[in-house]
Design brief:
The complex is a heterodimer of chains A (about 160) and B (about 160).
Chain A lengths: L3 H23 L16 H19 L7 H7 L14 H20 L3 H4 L15 H25 L9
Helix pairs in contact in A: 1-4, 1-6, 2-3, 2-4, 2-6
Chain B lengths: L3 H21 L18 H13 L1 H5 L9 H4 L15 H21 L2 H4 L17 H25 L6
The chains are: A mainly alpha (about 160), B mainly alpha (about 160).
Chain lengths: ~160, ~160
């Protein structure tokens, strides 16, 4: 069994993370403190939110516990936006983001196509998504959705996106 | 041959379009004229850019011509932003977005996994081409649309129509 769908999902994960990382590398710690619009989310919340979502991917896929349970409260959907100084320092967030990406790449590398059509592991708490494939697709789309918002910060910070960033 | 990857990409395309529509539909024509921030892209440009990006999918897949070649320059990636009123009206852009989506849906419905491995149709130098295959075109075009959906969501939020 060569698991063609798992393989394309694993490749697409690397590509969507690569795109997001490129933007994160372009933004300085100070740039991440900018808001995407007045009174709206700042880059620190968005990065924390991306970490919280990479973290709970493992719960929905049935691949282990949260690494950073506190981040679910701080950065989960619907969490109240606070001034940037109430959150962990950007350097910590960057490190935790990298750790979770490494963890999830392994999850993707070990996926198989039979597993993808299984019911996702949090179905009793949230049945909006039915299968593990739905989880992978939605989590990757969600990542790109917020990457687009971080892209606004590169523009606000006057940063040019170049392949060298 | 059941073409599992093509079927997967087709389903993922539908999911992406639902998400994009979820950020276009709540915005009125006036709200689409709002800028992300002063002097930056407005919703009209982003919607036009989404149209162009789904339109040229058929060129890269070798599945036919552009529906709206006149948009290629005004809404392309490097195009200079003009005031919102210099572009086609939002009602027309909404309709044209639906038309390019219908065109792309047909392409996805007929895709085969063999075809996905082929070099894309606009390739000149395979080794140095960033995308190389039709599979990569499909993936990156979808990710790109999600990226801009996230930007439209800022307008939805500014219009007071979303939770965050």
């Amino acid at each position: 069994m060569d698991n063609p769908v798992s393989k394309i999902l694993a490749k697409q994960y690397v590509e969507s993370v690569g795109w997001t990382d490129w933007i994160l590398r372009t933004l300085s710690d100070a740039d991440l403190k900018l808001e995407i619009a007045p009174g709206k989310n700042h880059g620190v919340w968005i990065l924390g939110h991306l970490i919280a979502c990479e973290d709970d991917f493992t719960l929905f896929m049935g691949k282990g516990e949260l690494s950073l349970p506190k981040y679910q409260e701080l950065f989960g959907e619907g969490s109240k936006l606070l001034p940037v100084e109430n959150y962990p320092p950007v350097s910590d967030l960057r490190e935790k983001w990298n750790d979770l990406i490494r963890r999830n790449k392994k999850v993707y590398d070990n996926l198989n196509d039979i597993e993808l059509i299984e019911t996702q592991a949090q179905i009793e708490k949230n049945d909006f998504w039915k299968t593990k494939e739905d989880i992978a697709v939605h989590w990757q789309h969600h990542l790109m959705y917020h990457a687009g918002q971080l892209g606004i910060l590169t523009s606000k910070a006057g940063k040019i996106m170049t392949p060298q960033n | 041959m059941d073409n599992p990857v093509s079927k997967y990409l087709s389903a993922q395309y539908d999911s992406m379009v639902n998400w994009v529509n979820g950020n276009i539909d709540p915005l009125t024509d006036e709200e689409l004229q709002m800028e992300l921030s002063p002097g930056k892209n407005h919703g009209i440009w982003i919607l036009g850019h989404l149209i162009v990006s789904d339109d040229d999918f058929s060129l890269y897949m070798g599945k036919g011509d552009l529906l709206f070649p006149e948009y290629y320059e005004i809404f392309g990636a490097k195009s200079k932003i003009q005031p919102a009123e210099s572009y086609a009206p939002a009602t027309l852009l909404r309709k044209q977005w639906k038309e390019v989506v219908e065109k792309s849906k047909k392409i996805y419905a007929e895709l085969t996994d063999e075809e996905l491995k082929q070099p894309h149709a606009k390739i000149e130098d395979f080794e140095n081409d960033f995308f190389k295959t039709k599979e990569n075109i499909a993936k990156f075009w979808q990710l790109h649309q999600m990226y801009h959906a996230g930007q439209l969501s800022v307008l939805v939020s500014r219009a007071g129509k979303s939770a965050y």
